[in-house]
Every structure is written in structure tokens, then in C-alpha cells.
Design goal:
Number of strands: 0
Radius of gyration: 20 Å
Strand content: under 5%
Number of domains: 1
Helix content: over 70%
Shape: globular
Order of helices and strands: HHHHHHHH
Largest sheet: none
Number of helices: 8
Length: about 170
């Protein structure tokens, strides 16, 4: 029996039941959330489109391939696929940009390829470090990050290396 098929419907049903028990206007709350979600989509679509275009132009111009060619002699002996290098560079800087690179990796190599699976694990194992530090530290007025950025980048590097290793070990 595949219990995973029933998890999401069960959670949704529990949420609706809890809202009804608390006598909340379920449909109105749903509509309000949907409006906010659509607003968010309209806010981020231009930046995602720009990043997808930029990644496509870099790939089409050959600049991305030249960069991969430069780092390939260093990365290949270490077992790190050079095709993941653009994702590794962009992930700490921009989540949207990293998604655009991930989409390009899926289109080029396929989502079920080793590179596609390793890229997926890398996306889940790393953080948009500079964005997170700027938002969280900025919200509480901290201007000196001290050891935060070097430690966070070390954690990102570890996540990237472990993404490739775990994908290779667990069925790459």
C-alpha cells in the first residue's frame, strides 16, 4: 500500500476540519491566500525571466562552456561534475538565478541523469547565503557579519560536495 498518495489529501482535510471547528471562514481565507500568492508570482516573474534569459545567453554564447572548460581540469579529478559549477557559483548569491541554472541543467542533461539528481540535491543542501545574511541581519540592524559569511560559505561548499557524493553513493 502506498501511503504517500494519501498524505497530502489527509493534511488538507485536517486543515479544513480544524478551521471549521474553530469556525473560521475557510473559503475566504483560501481566496485571500490565493490573491497573495498570485501577487507574489507577478512580483518575481520578471526577475526569473531575466535570469533564465541570461543563463540561456551565457550558454548560447559559449561563455559558460568556456568557464566550465577552465575549471574542468581541476574539478574532474575530484569527482565533481564541471557541469554543476555554474549552479555552485550562483546558488549562494541568488535563489532565482540558481533555479534558472537548475532548469537549464534539467533541459540539457535531464532531471533523472546523475547531473540532474546531483543538482537537485545541491539545491536542497545549500542556501542563498548572501541574501539570507542581508535579510536576516538587516532586519535586526546588524551590520558586521564577522564570521557568518565565511562559515555559511563553508557550509554551502560542504553541501555542494556532499550533494555530489551522496548522489553518487545512493544511486547516481
Amino acid at each position: 500500500m502506498n501511503i504517500g498518495v494519501y498524505v497530502i489529501p489527509a493534511v488538507l482535510l485536517l486543515i479544513i476540519l480544524a478551521a471549521l471547528i474553530k469556525r473560521l471562514p475557510v473559503f475566504e481565507i483560501f481566496l485571500q491566500g490565493a490573491r497573495q500568492g498570485i501577487g507574489s508570482v507577478f512580483k518575481i516573474i520578471p526577475s526569473i525571466l531575466a535570469l533564465v534569459c541570461a543563463v540561456s545567453m551565457l550558454r548560447s554564447s559559449g561563455l559558460l562552456d568556456a568557464l566550465i572548460g577552465l575549471v574542468s581540469p581541476v574539478l574532474q579529478p575530484l569527482g565533481f561534475p564541471p557541469e554543476l559549477f555554474p549552479l555552485a557559483l550562483l546558488r549562494p548569491v541568488s535563489g532565482s538565478g540558481a533555479l534558472a541554472v537548475l532548469d537549464d541543467i534539467f533541459k540539457t542533461f535531464g532531471a533523472d541523469s546523475f547531473i540532474g539528481r546531483a543538482a537537485s540535491v545541491m539545491m536542497g543542501s545549500t542556501e542563498t547565503t548572501f541574501y539570507a545574511v542581508a535579510v536576516y541581519y538587516g532586519s535586526v540592524g546588524i551590520s558586521k557579519t564577522r564570521h557568518t559569511v565565511p562559515c555559511a560559505l563553508a557550509a554551502d561548499f560542504t553541501g555542494m560536495v556532499m550533494a555530489v557524493l551522496s548522489t553518487r553513493l545512493l544511486g547516481g
